């Protein structure tokens, strides 16, 4: 094995080939691993989505048996949340946090490597569970008991996969928090940190807060399944609804874990392409912190129909609607940043504006869902599906694309293909809305989620939605082509690729960023 | 790194991928074992063996790096932040089980005994401890005075002895350091011995099992995970004891020692929660 030990600490030599990637302690290598892994998992989860939409193309059962359809929806959710969006954000954190705060690397380089290499193990458990007796977990990505206390071996594999993903997230978050709190360049006070760093600090805090709670829930499901405990069994004095409380105590902050880094990226890109500093920086920081705090007190809005006292419903309804306030502050700040700016519309900016436009739609439908009497109508319908895909696909995923186009020149040293990038944006925009906008109508008309068949009156909108989904899926292949093309060559990127950029990676480092950066920290004034 | 800030960034390392290999075998092994598939135990044991090797090797490397003087003030601060956040994550892990206990005691059990459940569970009167309305087997709950009270005393004393060991380390009194550290380990091991005895007593004489409904589930989940954490803490104490014997740690530079002490005190505090909410009330 070609591990080169350097007696002076970390050397500028590193093993080559596969061993480089298996043993690396370099934040840029690990960031690349995270990003490639999450892109791969996006296509695995996307494949499942295509299966779901193909089945729903017409009424009746065509290609997926109901049990397999249930597995597809379950694993689609788990893979997209834990395998695609979260690792992609950690990949961005790995690449960008040390560069943006002027640190030589992450605080714990070896732990960083382990955080990544746990993910393929978990992915293997999830993907191979399709091929064991009984098939993959089929109780939905939220694995509510009693469905999850039934189910075969695939459910156990899924539960262990979630455990391993949780370990990875906790280790990664502790690393990110420590890096941000302890490794900033001299002069970079907390209130001078770039917004992306701020949002990740708060995200990592949320992860350390709620991931262990998910681990507890998973453990209780495992012991209920295999060791005869009665946490979620009424005959033993337990309660299946208790699982929902514990799960959503994790689950609601989890959605902010996926969207807060997106807010950070958008807050970097909008000022750059408006050539103005971010409007209301400090209010942005406080808004992010408020969203994180409020997210811990709203979980039961996922369970209005599970039964709870009216006082509880009212509390969770108002608390949920309150989140619209700090979110509104953010939307206001972004638009105010653009106001009278000298704007240009390169691909990162297009995706950011697309993000704001569509995320607002998703945010509003969220407020609609928060209203108890309406939620009782739309619970478990396609209205909810439309809502959270507006915040996760046109929210988190669009921001991921925006960030990727924004930083690709810094990572690879080459410009991406602007024309193809614009095609990618517009096709994504059109097909996304084709897929999910009509699902609002389906949901309001009463089409339930997670069911492979539907009544005839839903047929037209479902066909429209499926066509949109196939188009959206195919469009993402274009993204892979653009990234590969950019990594392999192309026009040389300037050190400060975007003339409006102000953060350290643009002002202090060449493009591509060298393998080791900021060994001597920059001084921030 | 010999220039710049000099923050220590380790060379490429084989340990993380060994750790992932261990979890690969453990994950598949556990799923196979629980579903009575072939090779389950073999994979599980392989995974645990690799994990033991990993923990020994990785921590040994870090300890040697520390003794070689690679960790200075900034690295030390990183360790402090990260240990604090790690313990916070552990607090949240236990919080989920305490939450389950409170939920059952104050909500789900009284609901099951309510008037609207009379048709489904006739004659169930609620109250705590209970095995729930559907389980007939009788059990005796674990009393608080007796072994649990002695265990409380043992753990609280071990917190004191560990602090005495820390003071001795800071005064560079190596003899007292080893003595008090050894006493802490002895107290921890005695605690574990009593826990094992309590479990066998529960199973053989009280008919109190994991399958004894709400009370059995929460009792064994909470005390079991706490016992596991005490075991890990004791292994950590034994590790730093041997490091002390080899002359590791200096009066002004010993976060390895302090990290273990923080962890041990955390385990103490969790026990106090257990003693009050699981045994006493």
Task: Sum up the structure in keywords.
heterodimer, A: 525 residues, mainly alpha, 0% strand, disordered N terminus, B: 281 residues, 72% helix
Structure, briefly:
The complex is a heterodimer of chains A (525) and B (281). Chain A has 525 residues and is mainly α.
Quaternary form: heterodimer
Which consecutive residue ranges of chain B, at least 5 long each, have pLDDT under 50?
none
Model regions low in confidence, pLDDT < 50 over at least 5 residues of chain A: 1-11
What is the CA-based Rg of chain A, rounded? Answer: 23 Å
The SS-based structural class of chain B is mainly alpha
Biggest sheet of chain B, in brief? none
Largest interface: A-B, 88 and 73 residues
- Helix coverage percent of residues of chain B? over 70%
List how many beta strands of chain A DSSP finds.
0
Write the H/E string of chain B, N to C.
HHHHHHH
Rounded to the nearest angstrom, the distance between the terminal CA atoms of chain A is: 45 Å
Derived from helix and strand composition plus strand pairing, the structural class of chain A reads: mainly alpha
**What is the H-and-E element order of chain A?**
HHHHHHHHHHHHHHHH
User: What is the approximate shape of chain A?
Assistant: globular
Average pLDDT level of chain B? 94
Q: What amount of the residues of chain A lies in strands?
A: under 5%
DSSP summary: helix tally of chain A? 16
Radius of gyration of chain B: 23 Å
Approximately how much helix is present in the residues of chain A?
55-70%
Mean pLDDT of chain A: 95
* Percent strand of chain B: under 5%
């Amino acid at each position: 094995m070609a591990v080169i030990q350097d007696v002076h600490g970390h050397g500028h030599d590193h093993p080559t080939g596969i061993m480089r990637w298996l043993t690396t302690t370099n934040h840029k290598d690990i960031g690349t691993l995270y990003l490639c892994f999450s892109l791969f998992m996006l296509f695995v989860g996307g494949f499942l989505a295509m299966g779901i939409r193909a089945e729903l193309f017409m009424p009746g059962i065509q290609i997926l048996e109901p049990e397999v359809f249930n597995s597809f929806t379950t694993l689609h959710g788990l893979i997209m949340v834990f395998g695609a969006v979260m690792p992609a954000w950690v990949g961005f954190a790995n690449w960008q946090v040390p560069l943006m705060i002027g640190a030589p690397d992450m605080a714990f380089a070896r732990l960083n490597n382990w955080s990544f290499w746990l993910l393929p193990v978990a992915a293997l458990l999830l993907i191979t569970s399709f091929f064991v007796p009984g098939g993959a977990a089929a109780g939905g990505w939220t694995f509510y008991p009693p469905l999850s206390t039934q189910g075969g071996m695939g459910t156990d594999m899924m539960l262990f996969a979630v455990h391993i993903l949780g370990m990875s997230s906790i280790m990664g978050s502790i690393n990110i928090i420590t890096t941000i709190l302890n490794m900033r360049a001299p002069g970079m006070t907390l209130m001078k940190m770039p917004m992306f760093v701020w949002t990740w600090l708060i995200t990592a805090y949320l992860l350390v807060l709620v991931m262990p709670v998910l681990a507890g829930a998973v453990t209780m499901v495992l012991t209920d399944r295999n060791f005869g405990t009665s946490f979620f069994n009424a005959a033993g004095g337990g309660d299946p609804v208790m699982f929902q409380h514990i799960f959503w105590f994790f689950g609601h902050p989890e959605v902010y874990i996926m969207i807060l880094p997106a807010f950070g990226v958008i807050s970097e890109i909008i000022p750059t392409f408006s050539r103005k500093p971010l409007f209301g920086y400090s209010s942005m920081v406080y808004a992010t912190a408020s969203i994180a705090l409020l997210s811990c007190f709203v979980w039961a809005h996922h369970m209005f129909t599970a039964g709870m006292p009216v006082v509880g419903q009212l509390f969770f309804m108002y608390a949920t609607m309150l989140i619209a306030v700090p979110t509104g502050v953010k939307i206001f700040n972004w638009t105010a940043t653009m106001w009278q700016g000298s704007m240009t519309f390169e691909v990162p900016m297009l995706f950011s504006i697309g993000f704001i436009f569509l995320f607002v739609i998703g945010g509003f439908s969220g407020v609609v869902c928060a209203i108890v009497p309406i939620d009782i109508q739309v619970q478990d319908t396609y209205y909810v599906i439309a809502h959270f895909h507006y915040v996760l696909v046109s929210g988190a995923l669009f921001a991921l694309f925006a960030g990727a186009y924004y930083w690709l020149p810094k990572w690879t040293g080459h410009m991406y293909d602007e024309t193809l990038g614009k095609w990618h944006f517009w096709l994504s925009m059109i097909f996304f809305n084709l897929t999910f906008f009509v699902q609002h109508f389906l949901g309001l008309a009463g089409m339930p989620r997670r069911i492979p068949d539907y009544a005839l009156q839903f047929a037209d909108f479902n066909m429209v939605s499926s066509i949109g989904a196939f188009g959206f899926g195919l469009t993402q292949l274009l993204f892979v082509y653009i990234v590969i093309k950019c990594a392999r060559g192309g026009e040389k990127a300037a050190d400060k690729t975007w003339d409006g950029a102000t953060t350290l990676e643009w002002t202090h480092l060449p493009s591509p960023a060298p393998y080791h950066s900021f060994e001597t920290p920059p001084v921030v004034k | 790194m010999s220039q710049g800030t000099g923050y220590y960034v380790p060379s490429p390392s084989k340990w993380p991928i060994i750790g992932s290999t261990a979890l690969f075998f453990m994950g598949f092994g556990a799923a196979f074992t629980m579903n009575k598939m072939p090779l389950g135990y073999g994979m599980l044991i392989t995974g645990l063996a690799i994990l033991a090797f990993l923990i020994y090797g990785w921590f040994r490397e870090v300890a040697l790096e520390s003794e070689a003087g690679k960790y200075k003030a900034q690295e030390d601060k990183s360790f402090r932040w990260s240990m604090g956040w790690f313990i916070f994550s552990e607090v949240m892990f236990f919080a989920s089980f305490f939450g389950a206990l409170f939920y059952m005691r104050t909500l789900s059990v009284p609901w099951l005994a309510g008037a609207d459940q009379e048709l489904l569970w006739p004659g169930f009167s609620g109250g705590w401890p209970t095995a729930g309305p559907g389980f007939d087997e009788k059990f005796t709950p674990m009393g608080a005075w007796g072994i649990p009270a002695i265990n409380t005393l043992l753990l609280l004393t071990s917190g004191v002895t560990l602090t005495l060991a820390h003071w001795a380390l800071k005064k560079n009194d190596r003899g007292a350091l080893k003595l008090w550290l050894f006493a802490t380990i002895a107290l921890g091991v005695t605690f574990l011995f009593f826990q094992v005895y309590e479990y066998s007593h529960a199973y053989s004489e009280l008919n109190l099992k994991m399958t004894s409904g709400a009370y059995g589930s929460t009792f064994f989940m909470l005390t079991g995970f706490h016992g596991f954490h005490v075991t890990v803490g004791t292994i950590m104490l034994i590790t730093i004891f041997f490091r002390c014997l080899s002359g590791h740690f200096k009066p002004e530079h010993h976060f390895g020692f302090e990290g273990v002490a923080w962890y041990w005190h955390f385990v103490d505090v969790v026990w106090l929660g257990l003693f009050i909410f699981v045994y006493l009330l």
